[in-house]
TrEMBL record:
It holds the Pfam family SBP_bac_8. PROSITE patterns: PROKAR_LIPOPROTEIN. The lineage of its organism: Bacteria, Bacillati, Bacillota, Bacilli, Bacillales. Keywords: Signal. Residues 1-23 form the signal peptide. This is ABC transporter substrate-binding protein YesO. It comes from Paenibacillus konkukensis. CDD domains: PBP2_TMBP_like (cd13585). The gene is yesO_2.
Length: 438
């Protein structure tokens, strides 16, 4: 149902955190590990921050405890928070020059953090083998490089995915979606599922957000931003009109849930698929471990819809990274912990590839012998999705965070019937262009 556009756009991208909040120390600011002068235990204290599900928190805390037992001179203080508040918290800490020693980092934020001298160049630690990347393919590590310097260690590879419940498909007597299926195939399948599974179950979620739209644009050989990052990269608003219409029709027909139904979903534990209220879920593939734990039953992964005659929309993405901040007084000890997190076999048994497919081939081989169904499904999916992927686009430009917030606001207005798809596409271009030109 979507028409193919042949024009293409490259991009340049980064993050959006207010510049006033990202004042930083010099990137060269480092020292030998020192005992915390304010402490009484005589231990070196490291602070580490991450976002994620409860499952991720539990796994990470256990690994921290294991590391502390092996290194009695180290005390690690965890700071974890939901994604929505994570970056605001880091921005506040950056303004006060009090960032944690280690922060979980995202692909779209690296450029800006490096530009503000907030991240340590990790190459010296790699060269000294403090962080051992000899077992990691450059395809897994290059995403953490800016200007050929490594600022972030990939914690796992992932890709956008559709999770589905094979038992619910079987109950409905509806064939499972096979890779290469189209957007129309997805809509038709969702209608069949809804018809067979009853009024309290939806055919699929209403995932008319920005990431699936980016996927569609890539299939059209387009991108959401232009090359300079000061405007939108797709020339015709009809592509966004058609995108919103696609989901709006399913919403009006009762195939996808209303926003009133989904407003209380705050995490994976609340998703409709967990409670058998929908057989499908759009998300990132590395979340399948936590999703299966929450659902307590087998779930599978498949690729997003293909555009007939279009390009590959998928790409392999570092799910998240660990970076050492220039505010750290103990970068050497921080590097040692990152190495442990990356390469230790027992630690990775606990982590269970929840953050994505590990970059170490030795870790992947080790986990392959005993990993659970969720991790195995994720490993298999990464092998599958490579066939439907092409090169990743550069990180988003400055202003991208505000563009994402704008898209979400307009998306919600369409879902609530406050804007038509035509009005929404026009408003997104007008406000988005204005914001990107700042």
């Amino acid at each position: 149902m979507f028409k193919l556009h042949r024009s293409a756009a490259a991009l340049s991208l980064s993050l959006i955190v207010p510049a006033s909040l990202l004042a930083a120390c010099s990137a060269g600011e480092s020292s030998e590990p020192k005992v915390d002068p304010g402490g009484t235990s005589g231990k070196i204290e490291l602070r580490i921050a991450w976002w994620g599900s409860q499952d991720r928190h539990d796994r990470t805390l256990k690994v921290i405890d294991m590391y502390e037992q092996q290194h009695p001179n180290i005390k690690i203080s965890p700071e974890f928070i939901a994604w929505d508040g994570y970056w605001d918290k880091l921005a506040t800490q950056a303004a006060g020059k009090s960032l944690p020693d280690i922060i979980q980092q995202d692909y779209k934020y690296i450029t800006e953090y490096v530009g503000r001298n907030l991240l340590v160049d990790l190459d010296p630690y790699v060269k000294s083998n403090t962080i051992d990347l000899s077992d990691a393919d450059p395809l897994h590590t290059d995403g953490g490089k800016i200007n050929n310097k490594l600022y972030a260690v990939n914690l796992g590879t992932n890709s956008l995915a559709l999770a589905y419940d094979p038992a619910m498909f079987a109950e409905a007597g509806v064939p499972e979606l096979k890779p290469g299926y189209t957007w129309d195939d997805l809509a038709n399948t969702a209608r069949q599922l809804k018809a067979k599974l009853g009024k309290d179950v939806y055919g699929m979620p209403n995932f008319n957000g920005m990431d699936p739209f980016k996927h569609l644009l890539r299939e059209k050989g387009l991108w959401i931003y232009n090359e300079k990052g000061d405007g939108l990269g797709y020339p015709d608003d009809q592509v966004l009109v058609d995108y919103f219409k696609y989901f709006d029709t399913l919403l009006k027909d009762g195939i996808v849930p209303t926003p009133q139904v989904t407003q209380d979903i705050k995490g994976l534990e609340d998703e409709l698929i967990v409670h058998k209220k929908s057989p499908l879920l759009f998300f990132n593939s590395n979340q399948v471990v936590a999703l299966q734990k929450a659902a307590n039953r087998p779930l599978k992964l498949t690729v997003l819809p293909s555009l007939e005659g279009g390009k590959a929309g998928h790409f392999l993405k570092p799910s998240q990274f660990f970076s050492i901040t220039t505010h750290s007084k103990h970068p050497e000890e921080a590097a040692k912990f990152i190495n442990y997190f990356t390469n230790d076999l027992q630690a990775n048994e606990v982590l269970g590839a929840e953050r994505g497919v590990p970059i170490s081939s030795k870790v992947r081989e080790h986990l392959g012998k005993s990993m659970g169904e969720g991790a195995k499904e994720m490993f298999d999916y990464i092998d599958l999705v490579q066939k439907y992927s092409r090169e990743i686009d550069p990180p988003d430009p400055e202003g991208a965070t505000k563009i994402e917030a704008l898209f979400k606001r307009i998306q919600e207005a369409v879902n609530y019937g406050q804007l038509t798809p035509e009005q929404a596409a026009k408003q997104f271009r007008e406000e988005g262009t204005k914001e990107l030109k700042k």
